[in-house]
Design goal:
By secondary structure, this protein is mainly alpha-helical. It has eleven helices and no strands. α7 packs across α8 (about 160-170). It starts with a helix and ends in a 6-residue tail after the last helix.
């Protein structure tokens, strides 16, 4: 019994497993040099990739022939249904339009050209109410451009500052020696320009923060809600077609990335 236990305690010879570098002609390292070992393993890995790449380059691939090149689709209407569906799901706008065109062909039993004419009616439905919905944004953009351009002469142009001060501010005009340069003019006009500019900036900052918090809790901003409503109207106007296809196409037309 004692002999059996003594035999069980006999140490087995250690098996040395070569590192990745040993297969690429890199000498082994001592076990206590971890940094150098890591660098050499990386070098071996790069050598392995380089050899594999060189072998792949050395092999002659099958190049396409002229007949194969002629079979490659160059327009969306030449692509297969599966490819059109994949591209439309990936967000390709032309593929989205092509997918709806084929849906119209299938449902209404029309040829391609007639389906494109029907697609024009769907486009008109997508653009219905667009002018009214875009009006607040266009007015806001115009106001921002005018305010941005007007703020420069109202701060630094002497004649403009004198005119504005006389009509709207009525503060004491600085001495002539203090208004000789545009920077001195700006220093004088800033006494009344700072409060409105600072307040407007803070007001817009608060609006931006409020909008972001709305998005964080899942509340759609006004513009997105109006676009979603337009998409839903288009889907309701063409119930004969698959709603998902019409919804995606209408979402692209109104500038909506995805409809939830």
């Amino acid at each position: 019994m004692a002999l059996r236990h003594s035999l069980c305690r006999v140490a087995r010879p250690a098996v040395r497993i070569p590192s990745i570098g040993a297969y690429h002609g890199i000498p082994p390292l001592s076990s206590n040099d971890d940094a150098q070992r890591s660098a050499m393993n990386m070098q071996a890995h790069q050598m392995m990739l380089s050899r594999n790449f060189s072998a792949a380059v050395g092999m002659e691939g099958v190049k396409p022939t002229l007949d194969v090149a002629k079979e490659m689709p160059r327009e969306y209407y030449e692509m297969s249904n599966k490819l059109i569906v994949k591209l439309s799901i990936a967000g390709d706008e032309d593929a989205v339009a092509e997918r709806l065109t084929r849906e119209v062909m299938y449902v209404d039993s029309l040829d391609y050209e007639a389906a494109l004419a029907k697609l024009k009616a769907i486009d008109d439905a997508c653009n219905a109410g667009k002018t009214l919905n875009d009006l607040p944004y266009k007015a806001g953009a115009l106001t921002a451009y005018v305010a941005a351009l007007a703020s420069i002469p109202l701060c630094f142009h002497l004649d403009t500052c004198l005119w504005f001060n006389e009509g709207f501010v009525t503060t004491e005009v600085a001495e002539a020696k203090d208004l000789e340069t545009w920077l001195e003019v700006g220093s004088w006009s800033w006494t009344w320009m700072e409060p409105p500019l600072g307040q407007i900036s803070f007001f817009l900052l608060c609006l931006q923060m409020a909008r972001q918090q709305m998005v964080n809790v899942g509340i759609k901003p006004f513009g997105e809600r109006t676009r979603v409503a337009r998409v839903q109207k288009v889907v309701a106007a063409f119930p004969q077609y698959q709603s998902e296809i019409v919804e995606q196409y209408a979402g692209v037309q109104v500038g909506l990335a995805a409809v939830e």
